[in-house]
TrEMBL record, chain B:
Isomerase in keyword set: no
Protein name: TRAP transporter large permease protein
GO molecular function, one term: transmembrane transporter activity
Transmembrane segments: 7-40, 60-78, 145-169, 175-203, 224-246, 252-269, 281-307, 327-357, 406-430
Top-rank lineage group of the source organism: Bacteria
One Gene Ontology CC term in the entry: plasma membrane
Membrane topology listed for this record: Multi-pass membrane protein
Localization, UniProt: Cell inner membrane
Main location class: membrane
Protein source organism: Pseudolabrys taiwanensis
TRAP C4-dicarboxylate transport system permease DctM subunit domain boundaries: 15-426
NCBIfam families noted in UniProt: dctM
From TrEMBL, chain C:
Known partners and oligomeric status: The complex comprises the extracytoplasmic solute receptor protein and the two transmembrane proteins.
UniProt name for this protein: TRAP transporter small permease protein
Keyword Cell membrane listed: yes
Recorded superkingdom: Bacteria
Domain spans labelled Tripartite ATP-independent periplasmic transporters DctQ component: 23-154
Transmembrane segments: 12-34, 46-63, 84-103, 123-146
Length: 301, 438, 181
């Protein structure tokens, strides 16, 4: 009997954590409890920034993390947060198919193995005022928390503000920040309607969480257990994508029900954002080099 | 992987803790060793890597950076004459009240709590100012240490509050509503503390120094003008927070700026006092951070052993009514609170406890405040209680002596838990006024 | 050697103090700068790293000043030879643990360099750079502990030991100079 620990960063009732719990259950059932995975949700074992390192050095055998968190280390981890490159679940799936082997290769070079990746809901803009074009975004107090959001802020002429996620609610309430980007789901979880009233469903990008194992820990399993694990992983990936596709409309309805003005971006705003997206894709390609170009070429085919 | 049973493991760890602490090993090191033993007995993962990673992760923290700044602010104010003058300003008004200046601890911490989200920072800042003044005036050290330890925890209950943010994220509830929910219970706890101080002084009249000669009302007012600079400072920091000039963490930097300004204005800021204030604050921070590092590692080790989750599972297995559930959870959190720090207590048990609480029909905002009061208790229960450590460092008296002095205030926090369980409206009134339930 | 070691502890303590001032500077600049449209990219990361550097670089200095606290109730019951033995025991345990801790903190920092680990915020900074403060702070503490151990084994009184204050005036004096523990 083998016991694995799986640190994850999001609360236990987040769909990602729920999916992980089901995955752990599947694995236990398929191996007759020979492999037991304990999910430590809510950053209760390791915090998000440390999870990859913990798996890499064998402190835990398996972990889940937001893939783009590691984009500074290798641009391939950030392929799914290039704004307006893949804006629907269908496109996102296609992008994942095109980029998967590159991500697998990168992880393998670090002694890890990818099991599966599951998307979040598409990213939109939360604001305290009407945004009819990108010109309206000029001067916004814009939360910049990674390379992409900082670049967008820069390109639209917003004022980038550094605020940690933990302080965001207060920062919005007191006016330190008045616009930021995240998904309808995260906005719903953090009760965004208490301090902002507009949500633009720009579907800017669809980030993913990836679940991966330490290769040595995986190799130590016997063949039937390995197969059971991979099978449960494939099932978790399918289930996870379906969960989020089904739920993303529900989240938009919830924001509406709470009194937020939920709308698609005006053609003008969309056009302006698209242009910024092209600029950012070019930025990303420059960083990602030949490998990145191959991924984008495969995706656009 | 060895299987020795969680109860046995818990007993072994507790025994080791008492033994190692008792032999005079530094507290931070002891905690690290307990984590080491726990992992060595139960896991086969590289223990040293876990130690290095969790400690780095716990100390490279933005929200934590407010702690040394608030401590520094206290050190600066302490070196001006302002802290002494604040006492002279308050003194005429508190003379009639049994307990006299001891109430400064409660009121001072209560006010400071409105700008600080941490218990240790509140305790250290007000303690630095109040302890020497009370000692000089001949107040009983027991009551001044105890009330400081207890009142320092108000930093967590009166918004802003770091554990409330952690809870809100964990339970997916509104941070703003939990903040609002803590406000009235904060006042309740202050009232309980002051009530106890009054009662205690009436029972122990010999331990409180005699009344100062009475003053005319005009004199009293004149003396009170001495309060103005300190009140202005707190007010400025508070307004910076409310009007969006600063986030809750940056507030601490405003506090330092304000204290430096006051020190300069009162003519006590010079190279020597500046240097001393920096080094004093640095040492106190290092002391606290070292223990925090040990605690962060023990907490990770506990997560590996599964003891906290098993405890929560056990409570779940009892199938309790809501009020019995609250009672059982109280007992569980008090036990855990002795050993692990408050914030970890929230995240380690959340997975099991939150669904249980929801199922029992308890309001999650209410539960957040209930939980934060338990986190407050954890700050003043030995062997791991950060307010105790701060006060030990300041007063030179042992952790256990401080813990004994703080015990009545621990009981008063329990009383507050009982009261908000009986009258949940104390918590829910403000959140429901601000965000009417649809 | 004595002078060198004492300076090492003292100057790393000063470095910790400098990081405290730096945290203050970064936060003020972030907060005030926002009103005028300035932003420090990844300012939150920089403040966090200063926090870690400060916490660990100041440890040796704090230890030597006797401000790293412990439960002294039992130890203080003893005097003479028995007390000396207890102090040696406590120092041995603390030194062993700190050496172990230091070894792994250094390894972690080295791994960050080897793995090319990057900060995850707006700026891409190699993580081994801020981790140097953490690892070297622990290393200096380990040196201080070994130093103390040798000193106590030679029969000297531990430098971290202080008598409790005997009068309110002395108490106030102690509080003024830092901790009284
Ligand atoms: Na507070
Ligand atoms: Na405690």
């Amino acid at each position: 009997q083998t016991k694995w620990n799986l640190p994850a960063a999001y609360p236990a009732d987040n769909p990602h954590s729920e999916n992980l719990a089901l995955f752990a259950k599947d694995v236990a059932a398929a191996t007759g409890d020979k492999l037991q995975i304990t999910v430590h949700a809510n950053a209760s074992l390791f915090k998000a920034p440390d999870i990859k390192r913990a798996v890499q050095t064998g402190q835990v055998q398996i972990g889940e993390v937001l893939m783009s968190l590691h984009e500074n280390e290798d641009p391939i981890y950030g392929v799914d947060v290039v704004p307006f490159l893949a804006t629907s679940f269908a496109e996102s799936k296609k992008l994942w198919a095109a980029s998967r082997s590159a991500v697998e290769k990168k992880l393998a070079s670090q002694g890890m193995m990818l099991l599966f990746a599951v998307p979040w809901a598409p990213q939109g803009i939360y604001a305290k005022k009407d945004l009819n074009s990108v010109e309206d975004m000029k001067g916004l107090k814009w939360r910049a928390y990674n390379v992409g959001t900082a670049r967008i802020g820069e390109l639209v002429g917003a004022q980038s503000v550094t605020v940690q996620a933990a302080e965001l609610a207060q920062a919005l309430a007191t006016g330190v920040v008045n616009a930021f980007m995240t998904s309808a789901a995260t906005g719903y979880d953090s009760k965004a309607w208490e301090s902002v009233d507009h949500f633009y469903d720009t579907q800017a990008w669809i980030p993913k969480n990836m679940t991966f194992v330490n290769k040595a820990a995986f190799d130590a399993l016997d063949k039937p257990t390995q197969d059971a694990l991979l099978k449960a992983a494939a099932a978790a990936e399918t289930r996870g994508w379906k969960m989020w596709e089904d739920k993303s409309g529900w989240y938009l309805d919830q924001l509406k029900a709470k009194g937020m003005k939920v709308q698609a971006p005006s053609p003008q705003l969309q056009a302006g954002l698209k242009k910024i997206g092209e600029q950012l894709t070019a930025d990303w390609l420059k960083k990602a080099g030949a490998g990145g170009e191959a991924v984008i070429a495969a995706y656009k085919k | 992987m060895h299987d020795i049973g969680l109860v046995n493991l818990a007993l072994i760890l507790l025994g080791a803790l008492i033994l190692i602490l008792g032999s005079g090993v530094w507290i931070a090191v002891t905690l690290g060793l307990i984590g080491f033993i726990a992992m060595w007995l139960t896991t086969s993962v590289p223990i040293g890597s876990v130690l290095a990673t969790t400690v780095w992760s716990a100390s490279a923290s933005w929200t934590l950076a407010a702690l040394p700044l608030f401590i520094w602010m206290g050190e600066i104010l302490f070196r001006t004459r302002l802290s002494e003058e604040m006492f002279r300003g308050l003194s005429p008004w508190l003379q009639w009240l049994p307990g006299r200046l001891v109430h400064v601890n409660v009121v001072g911490c209560g006010i400071f709590a409105a700008v600080s989200g941490s218990s240790a920072a509140t305790c250290a800042t007000i303690g630095k100012i109040a302890l020497p003044e009370l000692e000089k005036r001949g107040y009983d050290p027991g009551i001044s240490l105890g009330s400081l330890a207890g009142s320092g925890t108000l930093g967590l209950l009166i918004p802003p509050s770091i554990p409330m943010v952690v809870y809100a994220v964990t339970a997916n509830v509104s941070v703003l509503q939990v903040f609002l929910g803590g406000f009235l219970p904060g006042l309740l706890v202050m009232a309980l503390y002051s009530g106890y101080i009054i009662l205690w002084s009436m029972l122990n009249p010999s331990k409180i120094p005699p009344r100062d000669p009475p003053m005319s009302f005009r004199r009293k007012l004149a003396e009170s003008t001495k309060l103005i600079p300190c009140l202005l400072l707190i007010l400025a920091v508070f307004l910076a927070l409310v009007f969006g000039f600063a986030t809750a963490t940056e507030c601490a930097a405003w506090g330092v700026a304000g204290a430096l300004l006051l020190a300069w204005w009162s003519g006590t800021l010079n190279r020597k006092t500046f240097f001393e204030s920096v080094m004093s604050a640095t040492r106190l921070t290092c002391m606290i951070m070292f223990i925090l590092a040990g605690a962060a590692y023990t907490t990770a080790a506990m997560a590996y052993t599964g003891i906290p989750a098993a405890l929560a599972e056990w409570v779940k297995g009892q199938h309790l009514t809501p009020s019995m559930l609250a009672l059982y959870l109280s007992i569980m959190y008090i036990i855990l609170g002795c050993l692990i720090d408050g914030i970890s207590m929230i995240v380690l048990t959340a997975v099991v406890v939150l669904p249980m609480v929801q199922q029992a029909g308890l309001d999650l905002i209410w539960f957040g405040v209930y939980l934060v009061i338990h986190v407050e208790m954890a700050q003043i229960t030995p062997p791991v209680g950060f307010n105790l450590f701060v006060l030990q460092n300041m007063s030179g008296r042992d952790t256990l002596t401080v813990a004994k002095a703080a015990f009545p205030f621990f009981i008063l926090l329990l009383a507050a838990v009982f009261i908000i369980t009986e009258f949940p409206q104390i918590v829910l009134l403000l959140p429901q006024l601000a965000f009417p339930p649809s | 050697m004595r002078v060198f070691l004492d300076r090492l502890y003292l100057f790393s303590g000063y470095a910790a103090g400098a990081f405290l001032i730096l945290i203050f500077g970064i936060m003020m600049f972030m907060s005030v700068g926002r009103q005028f449209g300035f932003n420090i990219p990844a300012g939150d990361d920089f403040a966090s790293w200063c926090m870690a550097a400060m916490a660990f670089l100041g440890l040796a200095h704090t230890f030597k000043k006797g401000e790293i606290i412990r439960v002294g109730l039992v130890v203080e019951q003893f005097t003479g030879r028995k007390r000396w033995a207890l102090e040696v025991l406590a120092l041995t345990i603390a030194t062993a643990f700190t050496l172990y801790f230091t070894w792994h903190a250094v390894t972690m920092t080295y791994d960050s360099w080897r793995f090319n680990d990057m900060a995850q915020g707006v700026l891409s900074v190699p993580l081994w750079i801020p981790q140097i403060g953490y690892a070297s702070g622990l290393l200096i503490l380990a040196i201080a502990l070994v130093d103390e151990m040798v000193d106590v084994l030679r029969g000297n009184k531990p430098t971290y030991e202080k008598e409790p204050p005997s009068s309110p005036d002395e108490f106030v004096e102690r509080v003024a100079s830092g901790g009284a523990g």
